[in-house]
Amino acid sequence: MATDSNSRLPIIDISPLLVKCDDPNMKEDTGVVEVVRKLDRACRDVGFFYVTGHGISESFMKKVKEMSHQFFELPYAEKLKIKITPAAGYRGYQRMGLNLTGGKQDFHEAIDGYKEFEQGKYGETGKAMEGPNQWPENPQEYKELMDKYIKLCIDLSRNILRGISLALGGSPYEFEGKLVGDPFWIMRIIGYPGVNQENVIGCGAHTDYGLLSLINQDDDKTALQVKNLAGDWISVTPIPGSFVCNIGDMLKVLSNGIYESTLHRVINNSPRYRVCVGFFYEINFDAMAEPLDIFKEKYPGDERSQLSKRVVYGEHLVNKLQTTFANLMEHN
């Protein structure tokens, strides 16, 4: 069972960081120093935190969720017009039970989108994910809304990572440049049906495999749970207007194991439908994920870094997708 909200995740107002985010000397600002201290503590202690003061209006965040609810309320046949298939680059609508976590079916449906790239850009590895994102025509203007939202999330992720880069003792720009100069991204709009029984697994326990995740969840239902260092599951109670932010496997690797990606899951206990909009900021698709030199120098003796093996991000992602959606081939 999860602990109550007294064990709540840290809440970090990042507005001082955003004010100075384009200033190369931002680390000298007292407001930035305080945000960076809080980010470091959160990344070391639990790997999850709420972000406020991020500059994206609460009304816009709510509109994204409301329009997503409208899509999931459509008849099944209508949703299938943008059905996810391997031929569509694993982009589009996935029906209930299609997603697997740890080999077990998750009780949710979703729209999956990825950064689009030109044919042939990433050779054989990228071929599996080529193609445009599939957005529904209904609700109208949903694609335009999500395109705007994705741009805002890209900028916000970059700026939070500048703070995390400072927290690790680097310059603000360690997570830019050759490994993250052309960052890949993933968008998952997830719908969890209401349930009439307790503890239905909407999404099994997992870590995220990118750099940074931004979660925009319904304000009136608690379902996300995070496993803390003590091994307890903490319920992540929604705070209106905030993002829940967490670090992923790639940040663990790049930081040389200093920051740990955290297990989390979704447990449905509500009779009402729940929407969660997840944005996942990644490294370059064709980048080799390995510890950055500056963090190898700063933290040479960290034993956890020995767990990090060299892997090309795009290969890692495609393997994950093909494993997760193995039953696509059988039920296409």
Automatic annotation (TrEMBL):
<keyword id="KW-0223">Dioxygenase</keyword>
<dbReference type="Pfam" id="PF14226">
    <property type="entry name" value="DIOX_N"/>
</dbReference>
<dbReference type="InterPro" id="IPR005123">
    <property type="entry name" value="Oxoglu/Fe-dep_dioxygenase_dom"/>
</dbReference>
<feature type="domain" description="Fe2OG dioxygenase">
    <location>
        <begin position="182"/>
        <end position="283"/>
    </location>
</feature>
<dbReference type="InterPro" id="IPR044861">
    <property type="entry name" value="IPNS-like_FE2OG_OXY"/>
</dbReference>
<dbReference type="GO" id="GO:0046872">
    <property type="term" value="F:metal ion binding"/>
</dbReference>
<keyword id="KW-0963">Cytoplasm</keyword>
<dbReference type="Pfam" id="PF03171">
    <property type="entry name" value="2OG-FeII_Oxy"/>
</dbReference>
<dbReference type="GO" id="GO:0016706">
    <property type="term" value="F:2-oxoglutarate-dependent dioxygenase activity"/>
</dbReference>
<dbReference type="InterPro" id="IPR026992">
    <property type="entry name" value="DIOX_N"/>
</dbReference>
<keyword id="KW-0560">Oxidoreductase</keyword>
<protein>
    <recommendedName>
        <fullName>Fe2OG dioxygenase domain-containing protein</fullName>
    </recommendedName>
</protein>
<dbReference type="GO" id="GO:0005829">
    <property type="term" value="C:cytosol"/>
</dbReference>
<dbReference type="InterPro" id="IPR027443">
    <property type="entry name" value="IPNS-like_sf"/>
</dbReference>
<comment type="similarity">
    <text>Belongs to the iron/ascorbate-dependent oxidoreductase family.</text>
</comment>
<keyword id="KW-0408">Iron</keyword>
<dbReference type="InterPro" id="IPR050231">
    <property type="entry name" value="Iron_ascorbate_oxido_reductase"/>
</dbReference>
<keyword id="KW-0479">Metal-binding</keyword>
